[in-house]
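DM from R.C. (forwarded with permission)

"hey, sorry to bug you on a friday — could you get me a structure for this? deadline for the figure draft is monday and I only need the backbone to look sensible"
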Amino acid sequence: MSELTKLMKERRSIRKFKPDEVPRELIDAVIEAGEYAASGHGKQASRIIAVTNKEMRDRIADENRRIGGWQEGFDPFYGAPVILLVIADKEVPTAVYDGSLTIGNMLLKAHELGLGSIWIHRAKEEMESSFGAELLKAVGLDGEFIGVGHVALGWTDGENPPVIPRKEGRVFYID
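My reply, with the result:
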């Protein structure tokens, strides 16, 4: 089995992170993997907003919690110290697909580097709110962007979840 196939089969969503800081070079390596994701017509519609500032990280988590309808105090990012918010240019027809591939690449790279990660939704709603406009302004982005998702990133606190068998009957051939 190739190393890539092994990574794909073993990567799991992590739901408990240590608060320990993730070195910038590891974050940058994860981001670089996202930048090299396939994109429709090579337009590279996705953008990545890396959040390591604890105050802003906690504000994003609180906004995400509110959108999700959870009680105050719940952390939808499971304590991960890094949030990689993936957004994409609304004008590009493949924006959501491009952003999804960006996230997929980053999840695999995180696993390869020994980091835990999980895809967290509700970025769409965040970017449609005044809070989303505030985030864009904070990083100096102009334009219309759709929120695709977040990668919560950090050191796993505990064991990785086990690999579960794949469901049968999900592949069909037309020969």
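R.C.: lifesaver. The two ends are 26 Å apart (CA to CA).
me: no worries. The domain at 20-154 is CATH 3.40.109.10 (NADH Oxidase).
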